[in-house]
Amino acid sequence: MQQSASHRGNSPDLDVAIIGAGFAGLYALHKMRNELGLLAEGFDDAAGVGGTWYWNRYPGCRTDTQASVYSYSFDREMIDTWQWSERYPPQPEVLAYLNAVADKHDLKRSIHFETRIEKLTWDEASSLWRLSTNRGESLSARFVIEAVGLLSSTNIPDFPGADRFGGALVHAARWPQDPIDFENKRIAVIGTGSTGIQLVSALAPKAGHLFVCQRTPQYVVPARNGPIPEKIRQWMSTSYDSFHKWVMDSATVFGVDESQTPAMSLVEDDRNLVYERAWDEGGGFAFMLGTFGDLTVSAEANKTATDFIRSKIMETVDDSQVARKLCPTDYYAKRPLCADGYYEAFNQPNVTLVDLNEDPLIEMTPTGLRTANCEIALDVIILATGFDAFTGNYLKIETVGRNGERLQDKWADGPRAFMGVATAGFPNLFTVFGPFSPFTSQPLVDEYQVDWIAGLIRHAMAQGLNEVEVERAAEDGWIETCETIAEQTLFAVTNSWINGANVPGKARRTMIYMGGMASYAGIIEEVARGGYLSFRLA
Ligand code: N01
What we know:
Elements: E1 14-19, H1 23-35, E2 40-43, H2 52-55, H3 76-81, H4 91-104, E3 111-112, E4 117-123, E5 128-133, E6 138-146, E7 168-171, E8 186-190, H5 194-203, E9 209-214, E10 220-221, H6 230-238, H7 240-248, H8 268-281, H9 284-290, H10 299-316, H11 320-326, E11 337-338, H12 342-345, E12 351-355, E13 361-365, E14 368-371, E15 375-377, E16 380-383, H13 392-396, E17 398-400, H14 407-410, E18 429-431, E19 437-438, H15 443-462, E20 468-470, H16 472-487, E21 512-513, H17 517-529, E22 535-537
Parallel strand pairs: 1-2, 1-6, 2-3, 4-17, 6-18, 7-16, 8-9, 8-16, 9-12, 10-11, 19-21
Antiparallel strand pairs: 4-5, 5-6, 13-14, 14-15, 20-22
Helix pairs in contact: 1-15, 6-7, 10-11
The structure holds 3-acetylpyridine adenine dinucleotide.
């Protein structure tokens, strides 16, 4: 850290304070400092850049989104020169990429690492934010950008006896820096979401014995990982602009050819051929979005996909009793999962499925786990129990806005925010991929939102405005729009982190815009074109 905030007379210490140094925070810093020429600094409680990719170091961790859309678009030279080894690159490679971006653009000197922002207070008199850190420092900033991550605040259920377990107990998203030796160890993985299934696929070959503790089974499609397809590679290298436009014009920005065909428009045999092809090609988003256009909105269409995946599970897993327990019964309407070798792992003698519905987890003991029916001796317990998504990290920061309103109170019954970028009552405070953002892949939409926020900050500075604040009516209207659209989908009636159902006690509600990226972009660009309609500029 070479440059640091210095007191500048009556001016704030910083033009822009950026919280978080993952995909969104790094780009925000680059944009504000290198492109807009503002005095901007970043803060992150990690010891390095990477955000989620800094903390998630568990075995098997990799993207479930294709690298072609899981990288920045702003640095064209890096698009040409950075070689992703695989379609779904592993965590060390994503972290190396983010370090390379940070080094190339000289970002690290402006980031305060191992520094957590604990409190943000709006100072009415000076129209500035006052920031306090865990190191006892305080500073002021005209604008704050929270790039704190959608899936970063860990969900750690209260397992009785957790403090008594004598082995290693870790949450996958707070993985220790020193590697854990798994060779011949007895390991339990609790949770079978994206994290759990990646862990199972990676640990099954090396564990002495692996116990997979499953509460709700999920639909897992093969990833078929391998090099980025040549066609995409060619397209990106010869005409990145048109590739980027194709991706950003899609509904979900996952780099998938999104199907518009209704599932019931084909007869069963033809429909199953479509599923079969998608199964062979691999990819969770390709399966959910590329096969038929109505899997997430029509129960009838959805059942055709779930029947197909269940038939694959029954075919793959040798023990039919285990296979049945692995078959989900709810809708295929969570974030879709993909992994290679997940169901196959259950054919290994060293892998046991523990069905927590049949045999509930009672407690952790000094030597392992006790369920209603058995005691399991263990060396390692891994919690793959997910995240307090969307709101968790914002609410960890004591945030006091206009008239002393606390974000913690405002969001007590669920978040209230406008288009994922701002929340009323908290002027000059922006969020990247905050609540009510579009349901999309993140890195390119992070960039998009940062560019939009930069446009508003540039506008405010050019006009000599001290305050920009979204109006409550606009926020209410946007939330209503999000709710109306979400209610038309099966995501609304399927328990997952997408609607807050995964965290006990959390308000269950829509926190995302399911109307598609192109439509989102059309609306938010209109806000800007109209002179930042919906914002109070003072
Ligand atoms: O978390 P999850 P995740 N007792 O919430 C179980 C992204 N991601 O970390 O379904 C027992 O999906 C819970 O059971 P149930 C990606 O967007 C990306 O796996 O609530 N079990 C579930 O099985 C993903 O969607 C990548 O019944 C308990 C699991 O824990 C998102 O993060 C990798 C329990 C949690 O699944 C979240 O995925 C990883 C309890 N008390 C994650 N509480 C990559 O792209 C919870 N569970 C690399």
